[in-house]
Amino acid sequence: MAGSATEPDGVERVGDNALKIRWGDGHDSLYTWELLRASCPCAVCREAPAVSGAGVRPVEIKPVGRYALAIRWSDGHTTGIFSHDYLRSICPCEACRPNQMTEG
Ligand SMILES: [Zn+2]
Ligand SMILES: [Zn+2]
Fold this sequence. Notes:
Layout (H helix, E strand, L loop, with lengths): L7 E7 L3 E6 L4 E5 H6 L4 H5 L10 E7 L3 E6 L6 E4 H6 L7 H4 L4
Antiparallel strand pairs: 1-2, 2-3, 4-5, 5-6
Bound molecules: zinc ion (2 copies).
The site of one zinc ion has 6 residues, from loops.
């Protein structure tokens, strides 16, 4: 019965500056817009990751099929598609960070 760790059970905005995703395995991830904007995986941003993301907010968030979220940003950027896999992998919480940073 357990849901998938990379399938959102719920996606909701938190206040004015963050997005919360509850995953199928019960894990909660909280992403600030700044983090998401700066983590945009699209080709444009990977080529020129100059944007700090500060002050940028999503104009629209919509599901892409069953595997991703497309976010349209207030700075006019529209090509960012955040797959669920990717979102889970950038979860900034304490529990997930050790998996992302291999330090020390
Ligand atoms: Zn982008
Ligand atoms: Zn996490």
